Amino acid sequence: MGPGTFPAGRGAKLTPLTHPSPNFGPRKAGARPSLVVIHYTAMNTADAACDRLCDPAAEVSAHYLIEKGGGLRTLVREEDRAWHAGAGRWGDITDVNSHSIGIELDNDGQCTFDTHLMHRLCTLLAGILARHRIPPERVIGHSDMALTRKSDPGALFDWAQLARHGLAIAPDPSAFRRQTRVSATAFYTDLAMIGYDPAAPREAQLTAFRLRFHPGGTGELSALDAQIARDIANRFPVDRRLR
Ligand SMILES: [Zn+2]
């Protein structure tokens, strides 16, 4: 399957919410969605996650919750500000909730993601990206924008599958340039260009970057880390005009 497998325009925007959550507000200063943030629920069932996402005392929510098996629950309208991202930043955006759509995936963080869930996610993303003209590099993980706090959607999430359908980005080994010397300064400059918060501790930046773009990367900063970061920063610098 290639790009176009998931036709744009299909989505839940126009249908009534299946599980309306009280946990939302208006997007601040007329902000529009320019990011999509992917989460896992870290709970055992979609029902338990849904109860929490709709509990006023929990003060959390997301626009969508995708069940194992592919069922889609809609909790907050896309035009409203759901409470999923919390403190953090991506590029110059610090109020990520006002600028994003949040998708929770029914996954406990220990298991691989169900095939039907992933298929539904692809269909949903195709619609969201088309409706809001969001480019694929602005589909990010919670761990990308909440450095030191969050690790979802985690090491088992298949970013490459989304990238194959043009719904996220992935490194391109054919674009790597040979590097004989690894410069930490250049590497962290590239991470800031990609969108990672340069004010966060470097160790947290490296952990989040590897979780997303270099699964299996461990130890000291490596030449491969540097090649991947250069490739992504080069092709997909965060667009700071989109605010
Ligand atoms: Zn999350």
Main features:
243 residues, 2 domains, 7 strands, binds zinc ion, alpha/beta, five-stranded mixed β-sheet, two-stranded antiparallel ribbon, 7 helices, Lysozyme-like
Descriptive account of the structure:
This protein is an alpha/beta fold. The chain has helices at residues 46-53, 115-132, 142-145, 159-164, 184-194, 202-213, 223-235, and strands spanning 24-26, 35-40, 64-66, 72-74, 80-82, 100-105, 139-141. The chain has 2 domains: 24-164, Lysozyme-like (3-Layer(aba) Sandwich), CATH 3.40.80; 173-235, no CATH class. The chain is built from 7 helices and 7 strands; from the N terminus they run ββαββββαβααααα. The chain has a 5-stranded mixed sheet with strand order 4-3-6-2-7, sandwiched between helices. Strands 1-5 form a two-stranded antiparallel sheet. It is globular. The two termini are 33 Å apart. It binds zinc ion.
